[in-house]
Amino acid sequence: SPLAVLVLLVIAGVATVQVLAEITLFAVIGHLALDGGQLTFTTVLRRSWQTIRKAAGWQGLLLVPYLTVLLPISGVGFSSALTDRVALPKFISGELLKTVPGTVVYAVVSVVLCYAMLRLLLFPALLAGSDITIVQALRRSVRLTTWRTLLGFGVVALGAVLVASVVLTVLAGVGLVPVALAGTHTAAGVVLGLLELARFVVAGLTTAFVAFFFVAYVRQLHGRSVGVPPAAASGVGTRVASVGLVAFAGLSAPPTVFAAADAAVLAAQADPRIIGHRGNPSQEVENSIAGLRAAQAAGADVVETDIQETRDGGWVVMHDVNLERLTGEDRNVYELTEEEVTSLMLRQDGQTAPVPTLEQFVEEADALGVQLLVEVKPHGQEPPGFARRVSAELDRLDPDHTHMIQSLDRGLIEEIARLDPERPTAYVVGFQVGELPPTSTGAVVIEDWSVDDQMLVDAHAQGRDLYVWTVNDLADLTDHLARGVDGVITDEVARASAARARLVSGPVPLYLERARGLVTIG
Fold first, then answer.
1. Calpha distance 120→100 (Å, rounded)
2. Shared-domain flag, residues 256 and 285
3. What is the torsional sign of CA 456, 461, 467, 469?
4. Within this chain, do residues 477 and 368 fall inside the same structural domain, yes or no?
5. pTM of the complete model
6. What is the pLDDT of residues 211-231, one digit of tens each?
7. For burial by CB atoms within 10 Å, which of 57, 82, 247, 495 has the most?
């Protein structure tokens, strides 16, 4: 609607201004300090306003995609708290990397994007240091960032990051002492909270150092002298701002520490489930009987799988509507009968396996004692009554209602939940920002990129489980398991099982696992 478009434009404009203010703040302070003038809150505010005003014209439109999408996705350059979570969702990049063409496209786009962002590294320092326009600052940054220059920048930035990581590692090592002596999860949480605060400070100092380096480099190129600020008494505004900053830091610290302590205690009490994504694709072909067995052997409590309806009303275990990626046959599931689909062989990473029927998959899961999380994949060619047929088939194969059903289609999964109230159901959410999406299902499955602590709190307050998909990185697995989610869906079942075992084995392993993710800057 026109109103929605207007709201999005306003949000984009506000976000762009805020991000611009954040990424140029240290550059503004650097220029003022090196100008040799009085560095006060008023002068910083005035210079920042002069910089932000440059985005008021048509040139500001160029900054919207650059600051709110391209810069945070690339991970190159200065970041903003507002866009810190902006990233290409891993379920999209993961699917792209499963095919050769997708891998090529992903690699090419990534290289081009990172290269473009590298050429714009000097943009904040240039924009904040003179009266040039946004376009002029972008052009000059591209002109000044040669390969030799970028190599030098890389050495400086890497050195700063290494120093910061060493400092945080030392602090983490010191923090291990009280955790080991106390031997409680509360102590582990308190120290982790303090380490989070230390990481925030160290990251800020590292960013300031790199920004000041860029400012000094730009000033040297333009022959601008470096002055020394005169020793003078701070103004009222500066003193008020300093007191306010200290007060804010003091008020922010206790909630961070208390929240970390509570999270550590909850992690000790939680019993998250390890859910194999399409079986155990790191070991066997996805959505195969062999993958189901491999997931169970690696420690999966639940196995997630996908089903589709064939032309003759049969049910096969298959994720893609088109069969070419895994079977080499450029045909769609809805064009074939159940017998025709199951006669094909799955091929993935040197492994082969036949396409199973849903009945075969359920029978094998029951024999292994593994619960299934069955994702219904509508291909759009189903006759009317699809939800009723899904419900009836699962009821026939699983009259005890052991296995769960999930879907990205909220209308479909809620209809299944209405038809069979005893069947555990889950609504899968690909993108979600803000509140937990409303649903009548008993669980919500949130994509890794979208999930946050408030969603977990809201889900449990509503009596719902919250699962996270698809999490493969060890640091991400540890983070989600430690925060107390009800389950993680992963391709790396053994890795996730080992991470869970370490987290529940005691406060020291919990501290070490969480601290490992806090000692790196970048």
1. 31
2. no
3. negative
4. yes
5. 0.76
6. 899 999 999 887 765 555 554
7. 495
